[in-house]
Structures are given as C-alpha cells and as structure tokens.
Design a protein that fits this description.
four-stranded antiparallel sheet, single chain, about 210 residues, alpha+beta
C-alpha cells in the first residue's frame, strides 16, 4: 500500500513520526487504516461534532449487547500506540510512544479526571470521556526504552493500582488495540499543542483534514 509508506509521508527523520498513529473508518471490522494522524487531529475530531449524533444515540441505548453492536458499527477509531500497515500487532510499522489507558464504569469522572491530570509521573497528552459516557480514555506520553508494549503496559497498570487509581482495562496491553472516537466538548489536550490548535489545519505534514 504505497500511500501508507511512512517515509514517503514524513521523510527519514525518526522524530517526524513520533506520536503519530493510524486512523480507521468505521466499522470495527475494517482493518485497513485510512491515514496517519496526531494528537491535535484527534482533539479536533472529538471536540467537533463529527461523532455527536452517534455518541448521543449510543448513550440512549439501554441494552448492553445492542450498545456494543451500535458502537462497533458507527464509530471511527484509531490505534493510539502506533502506525500500522494493517490492524494487527504483526503489522506494526512504528510505535508512537503513546499509551491509551481505558477506565470503564467510573462513578465520579470529574474526580478521576483531576487525579489523572495531576499525576506526577505521567504527562497527559489527551483525556476524554468514553463513547458510553461512563469511562475515560487517558493517552500518555511514554518512553519504553526498548521494552515491548505489553511489558510496559503491565508496568503502568501496576503503577496505577499501587497509587489508588481504578483498575484500567487490561486490553490496553495489545499494541493494536482500537480506541473509538466519540464527541466530547470537554476534552483535555496538553497545552504544548496550543500553537497547532490556533492554526486551521489537520497535521500540516498530512495534508488536509482526514475526516
């Protein structure tokens, strides 16, 4: 798939695609990425009404099985931990050095959000409410130092439990784990991206808005 050659997109410098990852169109059965995106692109997608209708509809479905089916069929998604030729761990092209930690069924979202943003060890890249409305997606900047993704995730998991956080979803240990992108007007993004957010573009190196 020549259009997905990361070197053709960014050039040879490794730092040019650090913190970049794959974006996929719905449904979840789709394993071929549309393109590479970055944190500011996800912010714009989530804070804008791209998924507003789907998010509202999902939260109105009381039946859990029907809700899961609706989410799988109607939400675009991304793989925060890397750029993939095809959505499975064997086809990882480059790790993003990002980790998405998923907290489900949280009673006090605002309290957890404040605690995550104040964490003294990990820097929050982006933090938003899950499509279902009762969880948080916490994307952090990591330095694996050569560790495998699964091993690093387990270390973060143990750190969170030891420091009194709710138990995260263990599925995050899969480097190809997908994250559905909802609508959340209260999404948090790291202030370091403030310059990019002032500009009216979606990742200059990635051409026009991918959504």
């Amino acid at each position: 798939m020549s259009s997905y050659n990361i070197y053709n997109v960014w050039g040879d410098a490794e730092d040019e695609y650090l913190h970049a990852f794959s974006f996929f169109r719905k449904p979840i059965q789709n394993t071929e990425p549309l393109r590479c995106i970055r944190i500011p692109d996800v912010y714009r997608y989530i804070v804008c009404p791209y998924a507003k209708r789907q998010t509202q509809e999902l939260r109105s479905i009381a039946n859990a099985k029907m809700a899961r089916k609706y989410k799988a069929e109607n939400f675009d998604f991304c793989t925060f931990s890397g750029i993939f030729r095809n959505r499975n761990r064997e086809n990882l092209l480059v790790h993003s050095e990002l980790l998405c930690v998923d907290f489900d069924h949280i009673e006090n979202l605002s309290s957890l959000k404040e605690k995550l943003l104040a964490d003294e060890y990990f820097n929050t890249e982006i933090l938003f409410q899950s499509p279902s409305g009762d969880g948080l997606k916490w994307v952090i900047d990591i330095d694996r130092k050569g560790w495998k993704h699964e091993i690093f995730f387990n270390a973060v998991f143990n750190y969170l439990i030891a420091n009194g956080y709710p138990e995260p979803d263990k599925s995050g240990k899969d480097v190809a784990r997908s994250c559905f992108l909802p609508y959340d007007p209260n999404i948090y993004i790291n202030p370091k991206y403030s310059y990019e957010l002032k500009e009216n573009f979606f990742s200059r190196r990635l051409d026009q808005c991918p959504f």
